[in-house]
Amino acid sequence: MDKLPTRFNPAELARSGRATQITLPVSHFARFSAILADDSGDVVIDAKFGWTEDRLPVATGTQTSNVNLSCQRCLQALASELTSQFSLVFIASEADAAELPEEIDPVVMGDSDDIHVVDFIEDELILQLPARVIHEDESDCDPAVIAALRNQAAEKPGEKEAPAGTHNPFKGLDELLK
Ligand SMILES: [Zn+2]
């Protein structure tokens, strides 16, 4: 298996039909790491290049990222391995994207013949982040946050303990009706 260069030409790789791999630190992905608890960890990308029926370069493969997600209850790090399969088609412009079938995920190249691996895979990394991130076992959460939640619940008898981050749209209304 070849090493995928950090900048590559998808059409060239498609012509060779190469299977490639690259490991990048999470810290190289600015938008992705901004959503995480910190920028430690690695992303491993396996990609095989070929052509679609319409002769567009396509990269098919898997990515596995070992990252620290941010727990939505206590905001502390939660080590996770995320993996997903992708099939990404390289196109010149957003206008070309409109003509693609819905199930195809495009990567817009712009005027350039080559692309940086971060621009190629970062959207995929962000899209496969789980919507709900929480320490499964409450005892893994930051004890100070858990204690604060308990106190909050104790101060308001009759109200059920809501998980942190739960937004109550009627809270303001409640106040008005008093
Ligand atoms: Zn937690």
What does this structure look like?
This protein is α/β, with parallel strands linked by helices. The protein folds into two domains: 2-127, no CATH class; 142-177, no CATH class. Helices cover 27% and strands 31% of the residues. It has a six-stranded mixed sheet with strand order 1-3-4-5-6-7. A two-stranded antiparallel ribbon has the order 2-8. Strand 5 and strand 6 form a beta hairpin. Bound molecules: zinc ion. Residues 71, 73-74, 76, 135, 141 line the site of zinc ion.
pLDDT under 50 segments (min length 5)?
none
Question: What's the shape?
Answer: elongated
Looking across the biggest beta sheet, what order are the strands in? 1-3-4-5-6-7
**Regarding quaternary structure, how should these chains be classified?**
single chain
- Rounded mean pLDDT score: 89
How can the largest sheet be summarized? Answer: 6 strands, mixed
**Ligand set:** zinc ion
Please state roughly what percent of the residues sit in beta strands, choosing from under 5%, 5-15%, 15-25%, 25-35%, 35-45% or over 45%: 25-35%
Radius of gyration: 22 Å
Distance between the termini: 68 Å
Supply database-style keywords:
single chain; 178 residues; alpha/beta; 2 domains; 6-stranded mixed sheet; two-stranded antiparallel sheet; 6 helices; 31% strand; elongated; binds zinc ion
